[in-house]
Amino acid sequence: FRRVLFRSLILKYLKNPLSSTTLILESSQDALNKFLSQVSKLTKLTIFKRLKKHELTLWVRKEFSTYKKRISPDAVNAVIELSENDLFLLKNQVEKIVVFVGKRLEISLRDIETILGRNVQKTIFEIINLVLEKRISEVQGSLMTCLLGRNPIRF
User: Fold this and answer.
1) Exposed (0-12), middle (13-18) or buried (19+): which is 64, by Cβ within 10 Å?
2) How far is it, in rounded angstroms, from Cα 71 to Cα 107?
3) For 52-88, what is each residue's pLDDT tens digit?
4) Checking CA distances to 84, which of 8, 14, 76, 140 falls within 20 to 30 Å?
5) What is the pTM of this model?
């Protein structure tokens, strides 16, 4: 009921909005299609969808190419994985990486791990595997890396 009331109030307002009005709606569902159809008849509607994995890959490569940098496929995947489909964060990560590598043209997975850290999940699974393989000294090293801030473990 509240959703229907909210939508009707929005539609009523949009029939005669202030000229300075900007309405931003966010939804992860396609249930808004009918509502968005009604909104589009009253206003200019722009829909922004999250980029898919292959689109993010292209976007990251393009960002690095603007700085005349090349990045390996593994490094691209790591940057995307560590930035969680957040373009603002991705843009900042790209700039941080570019500053770090300086005049070097090639960016590797090792650069990404050095600058941004490693995927925490991957690190945890590596630690579990090391424990199962009874490689205790390596477990201690991996834990120290996490605890010293390179890869803080978050729960």
Assistant:
1) buried
2) 5
3) 889 999 999 999 999 999 999 999 998 988 877 788 8
4) 140
5) 0.60
